[in-house]
Amino acid sequence: MTLTSPGPTVGVVGGGQLGRMLGEAAAPLGLELLVADPTPDCPAAPVVRDQLVGGFEDEETFRDLAERSDYLTFEIELADPDVLERVAEETGTPVHPAPETLRTIQDKLVQKRRLADAGVPVPEFRAVDSAADLREACEDLGYPAMLKARTGGYDGRGNVPVEGPDAVEDAVDDIAGPAMVEEMVDFERELAVMGCRGDGERDAFPVTETIHEAEILRESVAPARASDDVRERARDVAHDVLDAMDGRGVFGIELFETTDGEILLNEIAPRPHNSGHWTIEGCHTSQFEQHLRAVAGLPLGTTDQRFPTVSTNILGDVAERQPAALSGEEGILETPRAHLHWYGKREVYDLRKMGHVTLTGDDPDALLADARDLRDGLTFE
Asked: Fewer beta carbons within 10 Å, N or C terminal of the chain?
């Protein structure tokens, strides 16, 4: 790439917080960013060249974005892969990761089958189309089990625990559509690896420990507080996952460390991921810079970590949707090596991701305790 002003343009489908942080990472690389999002003045708008207002299946918007861009990518799985593929072929603008990868990821059952066929270790799973299917599957997998919507689920939405036979009917009604059921994994901890595929190269960021509550990510600890053998196995599984994907970019790979030290794949996101936000301060190259490098065909940056890092999400704590007004942020701004990331969302509601706080230092346990104290000093009420 020859650097010019303006530089090459990356078009991003989606303009939420991930699009915002991609915009922040693009400028030092000499890249321009355009985003397409249905919400006017979306979170990414203040830090990118322009926003196109249009839906995630809007072919006219996608085509406009492609015609104004040198490369296309996406920061949300709601992007329509068929439209992306068609527009890319018509305009000659490459899409990364590949639309076929997005198509695979969007359906959790297709995703699991693809990875199991590739030899990636996954929990036992079954397709479910009815309450009778679920009962039969649970006879094999045992109770409790986890019923998942095949499409559209995120942050715990679309996941329903099935505690016993009496819960089967309600679980199927809650999902209200095509589903799959997985065995309930007895895990020691949840892990994540931000894997990256470049132009003929691949790499992975340090293994991260992810802490969830009500299936929503609350904190990330890097490096993970796991043994060297477990971290090495997690990286190996992440590399196997990358080999099963098509196209360039960063992939959020969520894993379980089982109680006997094995690694099982949970899910994949074909984009930067919440569990990798810590890399902005914690690594020499952030996941957002890495994704842009990959999409634009540039050499990947180093994934080496600078120092132990903890990231904690700022979630809405209000009973009803209301204008977003955060208080208590002075405690973060006054704390050495603490970093506030505000996503610029205009409204807050309960458990909505509004930002995150990153803290760097020496001792992961102490960092986690301090990060929680800083987060707990924030409120939207």
From this structure: C
Give the torsion through C-alpha atoms of 363, 366, 372, 375, to 10 deg. -70
Considering the domain architecture, whether residues 179 and 193 belong to the same structural domain is answered as no
4 domain-assigned: no
Has residue 350 been placed in a domain? yes
Q: Report yes or no: 277 and 220 within 8 Å, Cβ to Cβ.
A: yes
3-state secondary structure of 57: coil
Which residue ranges are tagged as binding site? 108, 148, 182-185, 190, 212, 266-267
CB atoms within 10 A of CB 11: 27
pLDDT single digits (tens) 178-211: 999 999 999 999 999 999 999 999 999 999 999 9
Where do the H-state alpha helices sit in 176-329?
Answer: 228-243, 279-282, 287-295
Distance of alpha carbon 356 from alpha carbon 375, whole angstroms: 8
List the binding residues for ATP. 108, 148, 182-185, 190, 212, 266-267
Q: What is the pLDDT of residues 22-65, one digit of tens each?
A: 999 999 999 999 999 999 999 999 999 999 999 999 999 999 99
Name the residue range of residue 321's domain.
187-376
